[in-house]
UniProtKB/TrEMBL annotation:
Residues annotated as domain Macro: 50-231
InterPro entries referenced in this protein's UniProt entry, alphabetically: Macro_dom, Macro_dom-like, Macro_GDAP2
Organism per entry: Asbolus verrucosus (Desert ironclad beetle)
Name the UniProt record assigns to this protein: GDAP2-like
Transmembrane parts of this sequence: none
Gene3D superfamilies on file: Leucine Aminopeptidase, subunit E, domain 1
PROSITE patterns: MACRO (PS51154)
Length: 331
């Protein structure tokens, strides 16, 4: 039923007063590097013999990194990260529902009702500047079943992009689907988001004019550090990424590919993550990091090699790098 409503109603019913146009935001190819990159050629063997993500100006021009209100963007679709009953209250969802108006909640209650983890559901944008909202449910993070969490997060991003392609959409604003509320380490989630988008654009780049990574201040610095690894803006950034990228860069679509983790996925194909299972309480740790400063990464000046272990930290201290760097910055 909701698909019929989408086909019949091609435009939003209203427009937010403070609309942000993609053309008013700088493209990634236009953003000067914020961090100094070290020449690693004399510092030992690189993790990757060849660049896994080559310098591609055309792809870079499709990418925008923006810290702002996703509900204000005038794009074909924005993404909302929610729960399976599509009733989650978080800052991004709350802004989307407030701007979209009561018709959005009515459409969900009448036509959709629920969304399983990893799946996507599409609604009208209603009073938003965006034509559509693509809703998805991210995974809970659990140490025992880390691979299942990583794989599900990859599926979320890929399903969002695939649905956009199927609908013929050309501009999309992605929120951060992984959630600290669900104990997902923010930098590990960023690695999966960036490499999944990169691989999808390599295969289907002609389908999109604009992909906006919409983040808040706590994630902005993480994306500023990691974006050059997956979307290098020069041959120098491309070469430096051979040392900076984690060993696991995923498969051809960006999916997790470490052999030991693949075994765990196969051994637990029906596993569902539950809140009472072993997990990391990232909410309290991130709150500590936020209280130290506005955000942990974007104020850092210095060598990007200080961040080269992002995504490869011990599981028992997922935000140690963020907190240590912020403390150093304050000192």
């Amino acid at each position: 039923v909701y698909l019929m409503r989408i086909i019949m109603n091609q435009e939003p019913l209203g427009v937010a007063s403070d609309v942000v146009l993609p053309n008013d935001l700088p493209r990634w190819s236009e953003v000067a590097p914020a961090h100094y990159l070290t020449d690693y050629s004399a510092s030992g063997a690189a993790k990757h013999n060849n660049s896994p993500f080559p310098y591609d100006p055309e792809l870079n021009h499709k990418i925008i990194l923006w810290s702002g209100d996703i509900s204000a963007l005038q794009v074909d679709a924005i993404v909302n990260s929610t729960n399976e009953s599509m009733s989650e209250s978080n800052p991004v969802s709350d802004r989307i529902f407030q701007r979209a108006g009561s018709d959005l909640k009515e459409e969900i209650n009448l036509d959709i009702r629920e969304c399983r983890t990893g799946d996507v559901r599409v609604t009208q944008g209603h009073a938003l500047p965006a034509r559509y909202i693509i809703h998805t449910v991210g995974p809970k993070y659990n140490i025992k079943y880390q691979s299942a969490s990583e794989n599900t997060l990859h599926i979320c991003y890929r399903n969002v992009l695939q649905k956009s392609k199927e609908m013929g959409l050309h501009s999309i604003a992605l929120c951060v689907i992984n959630s600290v509320k669900r104990n997902y380490p923010p930098d590990e989630g960023a690695h999966i988001a960036l490499r999944t988008v990169r691989r999808f654009l390599e295969h289907h780049g002609s389908s999109f004019d604009t992909v906006i990574f919409t983040v808040d201040n706590t994630d902005l610095g993480i994306y500023e550090v990691l974006l050059p690894l997956y979307f290098p803006r020069s041959k120098f950034e491309e070469d430096a990424a051979r040392w900076q990228l984690p060993a696991d860069i995923g498969g051809s679509d960006g999916e997790p590919m470490l052999p030991d983790r693949q075994i765990r996925i196969i051994d637990n194909p029906q596993h569902t993550l539950h809140a009472d299972e072993e997990s990391i309480d990232l909410s309290s740790q991130l709150e500590t990091s936020i209280n130290v400063g506005e955000h942990a990464f974007s104020q850092m000046q210095g060598d990007l090699d200080q961040q080269r272990l992002l995504g490869e930290r011990p599981f028992n201290d997922p935000l140690a790098d963020i907190m240590v760097k912020e403390i150093q910055h304050q000192e």
